[in-house]
Amino acid sequence: MGLFDIFKKKEDALGNQIVSDMNMGAQSPNSYTFMGDVELIESASFKMTVEDVFTITGRGTVACGVIEFGEIHMRDDVKIQTHDKVIKTVITGVVKYRKLKDIAQAGDNVGLLLRGIDRNEIQKGDIVYKN
Questions:
Q1: What are the C-alpha distances in Å from 104 to residues 27, 77, 79, 96, 124?
Q2: Interatomic CA distance for residues 131 and 64, integer angstroms
Q3: Taking the domains of the chain in order of start, what are their residue ranges?
Q4: Which letter does DSSP use for residue 29 in this model?
Q5: What backbone torsions phi and psi does residue 126 show, to the nearest 5 degrees?
Q6: pTM to 2 decimal places
Q7: Which residues in 65-88 are b (16+ Cβ under 10 Å) and which e?
């Protein structure tokens, strides 16, 4: 039995198709299926999982979260792994404790100001990383 066999339809003794509870959850519109390259992200020098996204009028989109490992500087090139694609962007600001900073490191709760990213392109659970 493979790892993803729990998501397949199965038949009972009478030949009727049954669907496991796991399969029903995986097909819900609110489910999140990670489609990225796990090895690439885990080998990154910086990683942050997005916890919240909002827009600052006149500045752009901010992705908030706790930095899991590494450090980030203003003007660093990063990638965002969404549920279906990878987006390349640049950090135009690092906000920590309501103050604009040049650098943030692992364990910091930060907001990253992202260049050219619309608020609807990213969501909670997406991963910001730098190689």
A1: 38, 15, 17, 8, 20
A2: 20
A3: 1-31, 38-130
A4: T
A5: -70, 160
A6: 0.69
A7: bebeeeebebebebbbbbeeeebe
Token pair in block for residue 71: 């450090």
First to last CA, the chain: 35
Give the pLDDT means over successive 10-residue stretches in the chain (131 positions).
51 54 45 56 86 90 95 94 92 92 95 93 94 85
CATH for the 38-130 domain, from 3.40.1080.20, 3.40.50.300, 2.40.30.10, 2.70.50.60: 2.40.30.10
Instruction: Read off the tokens for 31.
Output: 């489910």
Instruction: Report the alpha-carbon distance of residue 78 to residue 80 in Å, rounded.
Output: 7
> Rounded CA gap, 30 and 44, in Å?
28
